[in-house]
Amino acid sequence: MGTFRTSTVIETHGEGDLVDVTSLVERTVTGSGLRQGIALVFTPHSTAAVVTLENEPGLREDLFQALERNFPKGSEYQHHLRWGDGNGHSHIRSTFLGASVALPFDGGRLERGEWQQVALLELDVRGRRREVIVQLLGE
Q: In which residue ranges of the chain is pLDDT below 50?
């Protein structure tokens, strides 16, 4: 059993930015020398998320509309009241979506659905420098 790790910094433009990191994960798996295992994709930030989805314009719009319906930006959040930074909804959205996904790989190739991509979602009200860590465990 072995491990392999990469870390990449991505500049985002602000709330609603979706960055497809599928090729980054695939390159990491291919370059690792590992043949079979699990790829963990993680971002160490409390106002961003890592998800799998079909990366097409209609679905991206649907996703952010669903987030607005369920966790409205204009609601009163104690975090915002305490810090005055206007991103309480960003923290809640990140908590519900999650900071990581785990995907299997086999034969040195990432296993995913035909229309399934891995994406970093920027949920904060402004652009940020986001780290994306890909950690592999396998053989």
A: none
